[in-house]
Amino acid sequence: MTPPRIIGGKSGGIRLRSVPGSGTRPITDRVKEALFNILGPEIEGSTFLDLFAGTGSVGLEALSRGASYVCFIDASRQAISTIKENLRLTHLEQGAEILHMDAFAFLRHPPTRTFDFIFVAPPQYKGLWEKALAVLDANPTWLSPTGTIIVQIDPNEYKPLLLQHFAEEDRRRYGSTQLIFYRCKPSQEAIATSK
Fold first, then answer.
1. pTM of the full predicted structure?
2. Which Pfam families would you find in this protein's record (predicted)?
3. Residue 1 — pLDDT band, cuts 50, 70, 90?
4. Where are the domains of the chain?
């Protein structure tokens, strides 16, 4: 498999290191480019949470395109070492924080800050994306009121989720990869005042 690269922004074109072994499932350049075309200029100055970060490819792309802060989380020591190396290669250390911990343990903590974007790309076929959404739904203030949760899964894993605080807004398929976008549901007060 071709190593991932930074596609756009100040570090565009730099090849990234891959995590050794087959435990991670890096996003393809095609899907990553499509994702950041969708996000567009909203990434500039944003805060970004890269859960199950793997190589860090998505969070690094966000930093390259002007995100002000990216938090990378992975439970794998090899992934954490790879992210550190990729930050060094791309000169994107500023604004980056790396946490070597379980993503679910992190999300169960009371939120210490809100994120404009939360990217969820766990190992496939284990129902982990549904679990991540459920934990986020129980702790919804991890996401800013105008923020977006982006889930990357195999299309065969998809099922509609009934969530209290978030609603599916869009779904895009790129071959064997599906991206699902969730936004905060409008609050009842906001609905009442808009009538």
1. 0.93
2. Cons_hypoth95 (PF03602)
3. low
4. 39-194
| Distance in Å from the first CA to the final CA of the chain | 53
Element of type H or E holding 47 = strand 47-51
pLDDT one-digit tens code per residue, 95-104? 999 999 999 9
Structure tokens at 170: 């869009």
Distance CA 177, CA 25 (A): 11
Identify the DSSP state of 5.
Answer: B
Under the banding of pLDDT at 50, 70 and 90, the label for residue 156 is very high
**CATH number of this structure's domain 39-194:** 3.40.50.150
CA-nearest of 139, 111, 135 to 122 is: 135
Residue 194 pLDDT: 47
